[in-house]
Amino acid sequence: MSNPTAPTPPAARPAGRRKFELDPRLKAYKGVWVFIEHERGAVHPVSFELLGEGRKLADQLGVELAGVVLGAAGEHTRRFCQDAFCHGADLCFLLEDPVLAQYRNQPYSRALTDLVNKHQPEILLLGATTLGRDLAGSVATTLQTGLTADCTGLAIDPENRSLAATRPTFGGSLLCTIVTLNYRPQMATVRPRVMSMPARNDTRSGRVIEEPLALLETDVVTKLLEFIADDKRAEVNLPFADIIVAGGRGMKRPDNFQLVRDLAEVLGAEVGATRPVVQSGWVSADHQVGQSGKTVRPKLYIAAGISGAVQHRVGMEGSDVIVAINQDASAPIFDFATYGIVGNAMQILPALTAAFRQHLATEKLAV
Amino acid sequence: MSLNMHIVVCIKQVPDSAQIRVHPVTNTIMRQGVPAIVNPYDLVALEEALRLKDRYGARITVLSMGPPQAEGALRKALSFGADEAILLTDRSFAGADTLATSYALASAIRKIRLDIPVDLVFAGKQTIDGDTAQVGPGIAIRLKMQLLTYVSKIETIDLDKSELTVQRRAEGGVQVLKTRLPALITVLEGINEMRFATMSDMFRAARYPIRVWDKDAAGIEDISKIGLKGSPTVVSKVFAPTPRTQKAEIIQTQSDQPGDVAATLLAKMFARFPQLRDAIGRRGE
Ligand SMILES: Cc1cc2nc3c(=O)[nH]c(=O)nc-3n(C[C@H](O)[C@H](O)[C@H](O)COP(=O)(O)OP(=O)(O)OC[C@H]3O[C@@H](n4cnc5c(N)ncnc54)[C@H](O)[C@@H]3O)c2cc1C
Ligand SMILES: Nc1ncnc2c1ncn2[C@@H]1O[C@H](COP(=O)(O)O)[C@@H](O)[C@H]1O
Asked: Which CATH architecture has domain A238-366?
C-alpha cells in the first residue's frame, strides 16, 4: 500500500485498470486462504470474521475457501480445522511441528511461504493482530507481493477478478481502495471486530491437507525463553465487549473519570477512553479506542465528554447504538451518534448510573 | 565516540495528521500549512537506540527516504543525539509502497554496512500516514536479519557473543526472546519518553552536512524494484467515508433535570432496541 515518500495524499492511478491482463504464470493461483490464528487453546475470533468475509470472496470467484493452521501436535490443531469448517472453510492446510509450538517469525514465515508457493492461493487474509502483522509483513516481502494493512472492506473487482481492499488513510479522514494487480497472492490484513462474525454451522465439514515443515529447531535462530501471560482478570477485552462506557477530555479531571467507571460497573461494561485521556495517564493504554487504539463493536457505546474526532470515530462507529453526552451541541459526535444528550457529563453520568441501576432492580423483581 | 555498536534508525517525515482537514466539497486533503513532523513512533525507536548508546556505547545513523525537505526530520534526530544522517532522495523513489520502500532502505543499509557493520536496525511500530507496520519486517527479511516486532524492552545485549534478549508484546502476553545480532527491532509505542535536545547537539544538528543519496549512491541494483514501478499495490480510488446517515436524536425533557433526561433516554432506547435489555448488567452473573 501506498507509503508515499512525500507528504502527499496517495494519488488515484486508475490507468490500465480496466484492460488489465494477468500474467499467465499467475493464473495458476486459485483460491482464498485465511490464516487461522490461535492462542491458549482457542482460535482468535478475528480468524472466524475473516472466514466469513473470505467465504463471500470465494463464492464470488467460484473457488474454494481454505484455512491455514500452523502449530504443534497436541495444540488442538484438528479442532481448529473443524472450527474453520464450521465458519465456512472448505478445506484446511495443516502444518504440525514442535517448532511451531509458540509463535516465532522465522518458522511461521517459512511454513506459510512454503505452503503458498506449493498450493498457490490468489488471496491470503490475516488478522491485523501483533502476530498477524508481524507474519504478513515478512511473508509478503519474501513472496515479493503486495499487502494491504488494516482493511475495512474487501471486494472482488468484477472486471478483472482482483481483490479490491479498502482501508482508511490519513487517520481515517479518507478511505482508499487498493488493488494488487500483477502479483499473487493478494494479501490483506483486517483488524479484529471490523468484519462481522459469521454464524457457526456445526454440520459443516471439510478436508484436511497435511504438509511437513521443512525446518529444524536447530535452524531457528530466535529462542523463546519465557512467556509471561497477561493477567486474565486485569485484561481489558474492549474489542469483544458488549457494552462500553468511554470518557474523553471533557471529563476534565482524573477523579471525574470515576463517574465513567461507576456507570460501567452497573452496566457490566468495559471502560473506554480517547487518546488524550490515555496520554494524560487517567487510564492505561489498553482502554484506548480508535485509530491507534482498539476497534470496537459493542451493542451499546456511551461516550461522555468525547468530541468525536475522526481518529476516535473510526474505532467505534461500528457500535450498534451510540449514546453521546457532550456540553457542546455542535460537537461532531452528534453527527453520527444514535442518541445525544447536550449537557454536563458530571451530572448526566450519575443520573444514568442511577437510572440503569433502578431499571435493573425492577427487571429483577419482574422475573 | 564509542564504536562498540552501530545502530541504524529508520525515520520518516510525515504530515501531522492531527492537523489534516478534508475539503468539505472536493474531498481532497487540505495540506496548506500542515506541518511536517518526525513520525512519532520513530522517535520512540530513536530514544531506545539512544539509551543503548548510553548503556553500551554506540554510533547511531539515522536514515530516511523522502523528498529533500525530509532533511528536517534528520536534523531533529541529530539534535537528540544521533551521530550520522543519510537522506535517500531521488525522483525514482517516488510513489513507493511498502515493498518498494523496504527495498530502497535495505539497499541503503547494505551500503552503510560496507563502511561499518550494522548490529541493530530500529524502526517505528508504524507510521501515522502509511500506518502499515510493514516496512520494518520488510527490511529485516531483505537483509536476513532477525526480526523482533513490538519490542517493549531490551533486556541485555552481549556484543562478544552477538546475543540479544528482548521482551516482545505478543497476543495474550509478553514473549522473552533471545536472538542473534544483527537484528531489526520495531519498538512498541509508549515505552519511553524522548529526551530533551542539548544545546550542543542542536548546534551540531544545524551545521551537520546531511549525506544525500540518490539511487546510485544508495546502491540500488534493480531499478524496477523502487518507486511506483516497484510497487505491487496500486491505489485505485480515494474517497470520503459515507457518513452515518442520521444525526443523533437529542434527548430533551421539559425540566431538563438530569434524572428526567436519563429516564427518557432509557425509555426511548429500550423501546427501539429491546435487545439491549438483555445485554446490560450481565457481566459477573
Ligand atoms: C495519528 C493520530 C492517531 C490518533 N489516534 C486516536 C485514537 O486511537 N483514539 C482517539 O480517541 N484519538 C486519537 N487521536 C486523537 C484525536 O485526533 C482527538 O484528539 C481525540 O480523539 C480527542 O479526544 P477527546 O474527544 O477526548 O477530546 P476533545 O476533542 O478535547 O473533546 C472533549 C469534548 O468534551 C466536551 N466537554 C467538555 N466539558 C464537558 C462536560 N463537562 N460535559 C460534557 N462534555 C464536555 C467538549 O465539548 C468536547 O467536545 C489520534 C490523533 C492522531 C494525530
Ligand atoms: N520513507 C521511509 N524512510 C525511513 N523509514 C521509513 C520510511 N517508511 C517507513 N519507515 C520505517 O518503517 C516503519 C514502519 O512504517 P510503515 O510500514 O509505513 O507503517 C516506520 O516507523 C519507519 O521506522
From this structure: 3-Layer(aba) Sandwich (3.40)
Complex ipTM value: 0.89
Q: Whose C-alpha lies nearest to ligand 2, atom 8?
A: B12
CB atoms within 10 A of CB A357: 15
Q: pTM here?
A: 0.89
Task: Kindly list the domain boundaries of chain B, sorted by start residue.
Answer: 6-225, 248-285
One of 3.40.50.620, 3.40.50.720, 3.40.50.150, 3.40.50.300 is the CATH number of B6-225, namely 3.40.50.620
CB pairs < 8 Å spanning A and B: 338
pLDDT, tens digit, 9 for 90 and up, residues B227-267: 999 999 988 888 887 766 678 999 988 888 999 999 999 99
Homologous superfamily (CATH) for A23-219: HUPs (3.40.50.620)
Is the CB of A256 within 6 Å of ligand 1?
no
List residues bridging with A157 in a β-sheet.
A162
A341/A325 Cα distance (integer angstroms):
5
State the burial class of residue A182 (Cβ atoms within 10 Å of its Cβ: 0-12, 13-18, 19+): middle
Question: Is B9 within 8 Å of B97 (Cβ atoms)?
Answer: no
Residue contact B138–A9, C-beta within 8 A: no
Q: Give CA–CA dist B60/B50, Å, rounded.
A: 8
- Asked if pLDDT for residue A102 goes beyond 50, the answer is yes
pLDDT for residue A11: 45
- Binding pocket residue ranges, ligand 2, CB within 6 Å: A 3, 5; B 10-12, 39, 41-42, 64-66, 98, 101, 105, 123-124, 126-127, 130-136
Domain positions in chain A are 23-219, 238-366
A228-271 tens-digit pLDDT? 988 776 677 899 899 999 999 999 999 999 999 999 999 999 99
Cell of A34: 485465511
Residue to test with chain B: of A37, A222, A237, A364, most B Cβ within 10 A: A222
